[in-house]
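Can't paste images in this forum, so I'm doing it all in text. The chain is below; anyone willing to post the predicted structure tokens underneath?
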Amino acid sequence: MKDIVVIGAGVSGCAIARELSRYKADVLVIDKCEDVCCGTSKANSAIIHAGFDAAEGSLMAKLNVKGNQMMDKLAEDLDIPFKRNGALVVCIHKEELPGLKELYDRGIANGVKELKILSKEEVLKMEPNLSDNVEGALFAPTSGIVCPFNLTIALAENAAVNGVNFQFDTEVTDIVKKDGYYVLKTNKGDIETRYVVNAAGVYADKIHNMVSNKKLTIVARRGDYCLLDKTAGNHVSKTIFPQPSKMGKGVLVSPTIHGNLIVGPTAIDIEDKEATATTKAGIDDLIGKAGLSVKNLPMRQVITSFAGLRAHEAGHEFIIEEVEDAKQFIDCAGIESPGLSSSPAIGEMVADILKDLMKLENKDNWISKRKGILNPSELSLEERNKLIKENPAYGNIICRCESVTEGEIIDALHRPIPARSLDGVKRRTRAGMGRCQAGFCSPRTMEIIERELGIPQEEITKSGGNSKIVVGRTKE
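Text version of the structure:
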């Protein structure tokens, strides 16, 4: 019998797990995928929004601003990169300039600091590659960029070190309410738990509807993206948004925390909650829209395109509460943008709900800090030479594009939540994220996985499930 089971190991589920790890409770996080960060959390804009977009007084607005304010300390404690590069919402039609003032007023009401409306001259001086048609912009200095993989994995690892258990490849097929507890029916057997947290992303409606008569509907809203090479990373320094519409914040252009340039997303509502394939129409649409705000986009430098699904609920509001007709069941649903920005505050809110309901007691020995994977390229030449002398694996480059060493990959395979697939290694080390998109390093990474974890190459997958790469091996 578990005290709490969190369904979903995305950024919200892992933030909840970390906050719950402060308390004396037996907590289990389960996910139908093979690792943390395999759904919405792995494919998004990687933006920490300032908080001017969400409706005044909404939970979305409150948690966005609070999450943004928590990010500096969280990034320091979890040893992840985070940068407040600032954001610009650009207006390209003079008659729409009043819309910037509306966003400014909403941001001020939401508690966003340092907002400023810039003239055409001011904004073009700040970002020379903006469209010549720009008439003005809203500047939000508190907006930032982060790596969603780093953030989610770091939250999960810190939770695990503090006693939270994680179980993957575990899909909930039904939930049965008993006297004072729930039985989760899964493909890995039954799990009994006193409390359930539903953080299942685009499947949060399916999980909710297993226990409640008040049905929930989550629509998967697909967003296509293009990722450009690091040679294009300085095309803009701020995150560039068009003025938002009812379908979202629009197609943005932004540097990433690792030095690339990202363009996207589109916003296309779809029925299939696994449909993450990009389309020519989607990519053409985002390129055209991005070009309205930013000129001379070097789209020949695209190294990959991808799509992510946002969990859109018709009310466009986060749903975070104990379900009225299913006590001891906590929804964390409808977590679309700004969900990544809000995740630290979402984790705190859900943990506070459970703390009150369960009368949870604080641990005496909670560990707040986590050390990330050592990156030799961040060391001085003297420090690096000393490290390589002590451990030669840190002198063996496996991924040339991103200069990832064997030592980093070995570390990724032996973390509190270890990588077990090529994508798992990629999310933790960036091996395979560079210009050649894993064309060079995959075979060598697979050799290391086989050696370190004892998984035969025929069983190693790209991303779990049946995504095997080697289908046979000749006898030597």
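The first helix runs from residue 11 to 20. DSSP finds twelve helices and 22 strands in the chain.
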